[in-house]
Design brief:
The strands form two sheets. The chain has a two-stranded antiparallel ribbon. A two-stranded antiparallel sheet has the order 3-4. It starts with 7 loop residues before the first helix and ends with a helix. Strand 3 and strand 4 form a beta hairpin. The chain is built from 13 helices and four strands. The chain is globular, with a radius of gyration of 20 Å.
């Protein structure tokens, strides 16, 4: 993460790590390896890790993994091309947000000068897939109330997690699936895949703990904190336009004047679930949605 240059070799290594994290058998040793810092040696003896990279190991390896991935997701040159003119300044209505590390403009910031290209999209996709591979541990547990400590670490209320949440929301809801001209939506790069995985990461953070509301404190969750505190008119307009544009894609793609001239998104279910979560948790957005949003259009899309 501290390397000055991250080329294709680093991306290939991260993809291989993602492949290993996604193996179900790994979760059989998760508690010992990631959360107790121990593993079994060749002869069945217990090996305890006490240091990492020459420094004393004072926290679980699983927590270090999530923190490292979150830092990597906000590293200039790998997940965004940093603007030389951006500087740090606190935003009164957005506590814990570092606007210098935002991937794109949208919520909180109208004009973000950070840029992206094909290599940046590949970097975003690689690190988000690694995070998602950690989060799916719950799929291999019989107990629906299983405490997924990877998601707990990711939901910690701090600057890096909050900033990443804004980046994911802005990246997903600012995506334009129509393209500039007919059929140009098929000439795409990895940006659509980034949107799909970003939506899945957001839902993993928002849905965690909802099966057991008595033990889950949403006020300490970075994701719920961001969603619940959105209240400015510009943020509400961005959310409304973004959701309506993306949710309408399924109907728009099937009713174009030139048949097949607009690409159909494959993350329709994720969009609907995120729209439901935001509507449930943010009363300001829910009120705006009921009063001024294009309800007939949205209802028509949902019925279709």
């Amino acid at each position: 993460i501290n390397a000055e240059y991250m080329g294709d070799d680093f991306g290939d290594g991260l993809n291989r790590t993602n492949d290993q994290l996604g193996q179900p058998y790994l979760y059989n040793v998760t508690d010992n390896l990631f959360w107790n810092n121990t593993t079994l040696g060749p002869e069945g003896d217990v090996i305890t890790y006490t240091e990492i990279a020459g420094s004393p190991l004072d926290k679980p390896l699983g927590q270090i993994l999530i923190e490292s991935l979150v830092k990597l997701a906000q590293r200039p040159g790998y997940t965004y091309i940093s603007s030389k003119t951006s500087d740090f300044s606190e935003l009164p209505n957005y506590p814990l947000l570092d606007k210098r590390k935002l991937w794109t403009s949208g919520l909180a910031v109208r004009d973000c000068e950070n840029r992206r290209d094909g290599f940046i999209d590949q970097g975003r996709l690689a690190v988000l897939r690694c995070l998602l591979a950690c989060f799916v541990e719950s799929m291999y547990k019989e107990d629906p109330h299983w405490e997924n400590r990877f998601i707990q670490c990711f939901n910690k209320l701090d600057t890096e997690n909050v900033t990443l949440c804004y980046s994911l929301l802005n990246t997903a809801l600012s995506y334009q699936p129509a393209g500039l001209l007919p059929f140009t939506s098929y000439w795409t790069d990895d940006s659509e895949h980034v949107v799909e995985v970003a939506l899945q990461i957001l839902l993993a953070g928002l849905n965690y703990g909802q099966l057991d509301n008595n033990t889950f404190d949403t006020s300490k969750s970075a994701f719920w904190n961001v969603i619940c505190n959105l209240n400015t008119d510009r943020d509400m307009a961005f959310l409304s336009y973004g959701f309506l544009t993306l949710i309408s894609n399924r109907l728009d793609a099937c009713t174009t004047y030139l048949p097949g001239s607009q690409k159909l998104l494959w993350c329709h279910a994720e969009l609907l679930l995120l729209f439901l979560r935001v509507s449930q948790s943010n009363p300001t957005f829910r009120s705006l949605f009921c009063k001024s949003m294009d309800l007939p259009r949205l209802v028509g899309v949902l019925v279709y």
